[in-house]
Fold this sequence. Notes:
CATH superfamily: Nucleoside Triphosphate Pyrophosphohydrolase
Helix content: 25-40%
Order of helices and strands: EHEEHEEEEHEEEHH
Number of strands: 10
Radius of gyration: 16 Å
Mean pLDDT: 89
CATH class: Alpha Beta
Number of domains: 1
CATH topology: Nucleoside Triphosphate Pyrophosphohydrolase
Amino acid sequence: xxxxxxxxxxxxxxxxxxxxxxxxxxxxxxxxxxxxxxxxxxxxxxxxxxxxxxxxxxxxxxxxxxxxxxxxxxxxxxxxxxxxxxxxxxxxxxxxxxxxxxxxxxxxxxxxxxxxxxxxxxxxxxxxxxxxxxxxxxxxxxxxxxxxxxxxxxxxxxxxxxxxxxxxxxxxxxxxxxxxxxxxxxxxxxxxxxxxxxx
Length: 199
């Protein structure tokens, strides 16, 4: 399937998205994912504080991954291709609950999700100067229908098989988010590969 382009946001909707990001809070954690404090989402991305996050990999029955191209208006790593969905649990919200919430908010879908690993990474966006430093919980699920993406989050989407992803990561690494490179590398090794079928 070729990439499906999502109609762009209006200026008013883009302003609402920026306001939402400005007031959102995240959970700052230590290297063992123990909560330390609550901080503003934009603040931790400016300072590079380690915070709790999740990434979701949704597959179809052919074993293809549902990828998104991050919307033009994203505050960091805009227009890069990445895994199905990412986000942060809110204070008092479980990571699994947050993952389900964000998948519905971003892609308009609900599927059972299973946590299949964690990793810690740090990556700086050269364009914005913002930093992702995350204790990342990795979830996967299976979906067979057509998603309904939010244009404030997603600029385009497509189903794509792992061999094609690997070729694209080698030939056009700058097209993808840094954490997506790490997620695909983990898919090819334990413990994730046994948890995600048909890859």
